Structures are given as structure tokens and as C-alpha cells.
TrEMBL record:
Alphabetized CDD domains for the sequence: thiolase
Gene Ontology MF terms: acetyl-CoA C-acyltransferase activity
Keywords: Acyltransferase, Transferase
Residues annotated as domain Thiolase C-terminal: 203-324
Domain of life: Bacteria
Domain Thiolase N-terminal: residue ranges: 2-195
Gene3D superfamilies, per the entry: 3.40.47.10
PROSITE patterns: THIOLASE_2, THIOLASE_3
Name this protein carries in UniProt: Acetoacetyl-CoA thiolase
Family: Belongs to the thiolase-like superfamily. Thiolase family.
InterPro entries: Thiolase (IPR002155), Thiolase-like (IPR016039), Thiolase_AS (IPR020610), Thiolase_C (IPR020617), Thiolase_CS (IPR020613), Thiolase_N (IPR020616)
């Protein structure tokens, strides 16, 4: 994917590419690995990010046991964890967290509404304009300029969210309204040493301080940010209160609220311009999208420390700390 993408983007043939896969953490992980590489070789410049087309995600079929078998093809079940541990769908993991932490349906819908409202305010104020690149798409009446996210629902009301039925469990509380969407997206960042950036006359938007990853029970995979953040704080000697802004991926409202109850962070610092419930969650692209959002919001607010974190299907969490001078 990485090599194909860079060639289609017009980068020179001599530029190599590498694709990584850590599910929802891929975008953050690509940025973190790029930073680690630059530390080893300060002369390198790395384009790091992620891309996902969930609308065109292919189906995988099991091979036929016999040639010309008349039995219908069987789809491959996507597995993130062995059956003896538990391999539930992501929605069920969100329901598990809601039950474990006694998170109500109203709390989840209130959080989802906040995400939509925060993003709408950011869109109206043009906060994303500098971050986004428009693309031309073919249309029946000529090219169409695609320059805004399709997923946000700016007219969302709490009453409408409360009317939605649970989609993963009959008597559950997780709905389409308080979950992230199925989306296409891509994002990328340029990673290089501070010295090289200054040498080339480029603005340093932020510095990558450190990062961490941790494993959790796949049945409650959404709690992954908790140990990942705790490990990062221990590595850096920081406290959660030291961060001015936090981007915590909104896979589900219940998942964010469960992490908040464990980490006890100030919710007013979190996803101030909306999150994945509003803008969607194109799996591999989301992490680098969140890093981009955080960098520009830190710059806009003139604050110094930011944290980005996400849960990961299969039971992991990832966290990355940013700084600005």
C-alpha cells in the first residue's frame, strides 16, 4: 500500500515504501516509527500516515477443497483474537465496557452529541481548512471538487440520538449514533529532525516526545488507551494534567467514557474539535488524522503539550506525546 501510494502521488521511483498494520493504531504507529527512524538517522525525511477505504474493503474467500466444487464459496472470518480468549465484534466490546463501567445510554448519547457539536463549530470557524487537501473526482457533469468530510451530522439532536435502536445487542446501549462510522480517508505528515527542518527553512509544527503501546483483554479492547497512556507517562515522567490537549479516538462513546473513568482526565481537553463519532473512523488513517488535528490545534491555541491515543482491535492501545516550543 505505501509503495503504491507514493508512486501514485508522484514521488520519485527511488523513494522506498513500507506498509505497517496495527489496526486502528496504524496511523499513530507510522508516525512513531518515523520519529524513531529519524532519531537514528537525522538526515532522513519520512512521509508517515495511513489510508483506508472501508467502502471498498474486499471480501476474502476460503479456497475450495476440491476443484470445480459446486458448494458455494465460504467467506473468511476476520480474526483478531483466538476463540479461547474471545474474539467479539467491536460493537460487543463497546457493550462490554458500558456494562463494566455502568455507562448509561444517555451518557453515551450526550458524548456523541458533544462530538458532533464540537466538529460543527470547528468546521464553521475554518479550523480544518489548513489541514485538508481537496481532490478532484469525476462526475456526470464534469469534475467534482471534494473538500469536506461527508460523515458529520451538524443537525444532530439528543432527542434523535435517543430514538436510535441498539445495533449490537438487543437490550444494549451502543447505537449507530454513539459509534464511529464506516469511512474512507487518508492522511500524512512529514517527519524530520529539527535541525534539518531549520536548515531547509521549514516551520517546526511539533516535536514527538515519546510513544508507547500496550495490550489488554480483547473482550474490552476499547480500554487499550489506559495502559498505553500510563506506560507513556511513566516513560516520560509526566502527569496527565501536564497535557493541554488530548485526542482520544472515539471508536465508541462508551469506550471513551470508560477510559475517562480510569484515567480521570479533564474531558474539556479531549477532542475539542470533535472526534471519530463526528468525522468518522477510516481505520488505518485515523491515527495520523488525530496527530494532524492535535498539531494544528496546539498551534492555534499556542499550547505546548498534546497527547494522542487510540484503542486497537484485538486488544491493544497506543499513545504518543507531542510538544511545541
Amino acid at each position: 500500500m505505501a509503495r503504491l501510494t507514493l508512486l501514485e502521488a508522484g514521488l520519485p521511483i527511488k523513494v522506498p515504501g513500507m506498509t505497517i498494520d496495527r489496526q486502528c493504531g496504524s496511523g499513530i504507529n507510522s508516525v512513531a516509527l518515523a520519529a524513531d527512524r529519524v532519531k537514528l538517522n537525522p538526515s532522513e525525511v519520512i512521509l508517515a500516515g495511513g489510508t483506508e477505504s472501508m467502502s471498498r474493503s474486499p471480501y476474502l474467500l476460503l479456497p475450495q477443497e476440491r476443484p470445480y466444487d459446486r458448494l458455494p464459496p465460504q467467506f473468511v472470518k476476520r480474526r483478531l483474537s483466538p476463540d479461547f480468549i474471545g474474539d467479539p465484534g467491536m460493537g460487543i466490546t463497546a457493550e462490554n465496557l458500558a456494562e463494566k463501567y455502568n455507562i448509561t445510554r444517555e451518557e453515551q448519547d450526550q458524548f456523541a452529541l458533544r462530538s458532533q457539536q464540537n466538529m460543527q463549530r470547528a468546521v464553521e470557524n475554518g479550523f480544518f481548512d489548513e489541514q485538508m487537501v481537496s481532490i478532484q473526482l469525476p462526475g456526470k457533469k464534469g469534475p467534482i471538487t471534494f473538500e469536506k468530510d461527508e460523515h458529520p451530522r451538524p443537525n444532530t439532536k439528543l432527542e434523535g440520538l435517543m430514538k436510535l435502536k441498539p445495533v449490537f445487542k438487543k437490550d444494549g446501549s451502543v447505537t449507530a449514533g454513539n459509534s464511529s462510522g464506516v469511512n474512507d480517508g487518508a492522511s500524512a505528515l512529514v517527519i524530520m529532525s529539527e535541525e534539518l527542518a531549520k536548515e531547509r527553512g521549514l516551520e517546526v509544527l511539533a516535536k514527538i516526545k515519546d510513544w508507547s503501546v500496550a495490550g489488554v483483554d480483547p473482550n474490552v479492547m476499547g480500554i487499550g488507551p489506559v495502559p498505553a497512556v500510563q506506560r507513556l507517562l511513566k516513560k516520560t515522567g509526566m502527569n496527565l494534567a501536564d497535557f493541554d490537549l488530548i485526542e482520544l479516538n472515539e471508536a465508541f462513546a462508551s469506550q471513551v467514557l470508560a477510559c475517562q473513568r480510569e484515567l480521570e482526565f479533564d474531558l474539556e481537553k479531549v477532542n475539542v474539535n470533535g472526534g471519530a463519532i463526528a468525522h468518522g473512523h477510516p481505520i488505518a488513517a485515523t491515527g495520523s488524522m488525530l496527530v494532524t488535528k492535535l498539531v494544528y490545534e496546539m498551534k492555534r491555541r499556542k499550547v505546548n503539550r498534546g497527547l494522542v491515543t487510540a484503542c486497537i482491535g484485538g486488544g491493544q492501545g497506543i499513545a504518543l506525546a507531542l510538544e511545541r516550543d
